[in-house]
Amino acid sequence: MKDMSNNCSLSTVSCQLSYGNVQALKNVSFEVERGELFGLIGPDGAGKTSLFRILATLLLADGGTVTVNGLDAVADYKAIRRCTGYMPGRFSLYQDLTVEENLNFFASVFNVTVKENRYLIEDIYRQIAPFGKRRAGQLSGGMKQKLALCCALIHKPSVLLLDEPTTGVDPVSRKEFWEMLKRLKHQGITILVSTPYMNEASMCDRIALMQNGEILSIDTPAKTVANYPRKLYAAESDRIYRTLVQLRENPAVRSVYSFGASLHVTFNDQSTGEDGLSTVENEINCRLKEISPTVEDCFIEMSNRYPQTGDEK
């Protein structure tokens, strides 16, 4: 076994994976520090789930090195499984067992009891306790995710791998789930979480923007936004689709895309002043104002350099 004295909980160096002719991961390298809440942000097909399965020792990479708590993902896979909690994207607990039966089963797998580690899940379990006798398959989406998180924590892991835990969950449950993750982080647990929701990026200490099996950037959410290289404008109009088409045809416009009830626009000329903006406004009959970018704007800007092929898993 390797030395675990350094401050790195998770590490991948040039990790690669292919499914036949499709390269799902392309030289992915990153490190997650102990006690860090690290987010993998990207759309479906970016390679997030494949990477999680490799880190959880459920899938072998084609090349590169992967370590968890200083343990090699191939040579020390049994030790990694003992110190890691993994929550896959799909609900994978036994749907015909009750909430209590699922918890007791997963505790017994790791030779512990729910009673001795209840303090780890107390805040979460309190919300599902009224449904203790209900079968897991009959729970709501949010309650299923809370039960799955309890089962992933019941053996007191030092590393938690959460693959899109809030997908398909209502906004209130999503907010509650992230609040739970913050409390777990304060307990010293290292958390790697993936999500396709760009607005959840701000909840993480650092984020990796991922697409087509590659990591586009790694930084804090604030620095990711601060590094946006252009002036960004919001365009508002009473006829938003017509405005979108006209802006795309305008030679002064570099990019334009829908964002909520408005359009986000960048120009080829970074020095475009008020006169230039007024010209565009009058030509297209829209209102333009400079705005601060979001993580989603940063992702769109970066992803334009790496066109989506649609092949990655």
Can you characterise this structure?
By secondary structure, the protein is of the alpha/beta class. Helix content is 34%, strand content 28%. The protein has helices at 48-55, 77-83, 99-109, 114-128, 141-153, 171-186, 221-226, 240-249, 274-284, 295-303; strands at 8-19, 22-33, 37-41, 63-68, 71-72, 84-87, 159-163, 190-195, 206-211, 214-219, 232-236, 253-259, 262-267, 287-291. Strands 6-7-8-3-9-10 form a 6-stranded mixed sheet, sandwiched between helices. A 4-stranded antiparallel sheet has the order 2-1-4-5, with helices on one face. α3 runs parallel beside α5 and α4 (114-128) runs antiparallel to α5 (141-153). 39% of the residues are buried.
Query: Structural class of the helix and strand makeup?
Result: alpha/beta
Task: Bin the strand percentage.
Answer: 25-35%
The quaternary structure here is single chain
Average pLDDT over all residues: 89
Distance between the termini: 32 Å
Global shape: elongated
Largest sheet: 6 strands, mixed
Tally of strands: 14
Write the H/E string, N to C.
Answer: EEEHEEHEHHHEHEEEHEHEEHEH
Low-confidence stretches are: 1-5, 309-313
Portion of residues within helices? 25-40%
The helix count comes to 10
Gyration radius, rounded? 22 Å
Give the strand order of the largest sheet, numbering strands 1, 2, ... along the chain.
6-7-8-3-9-10
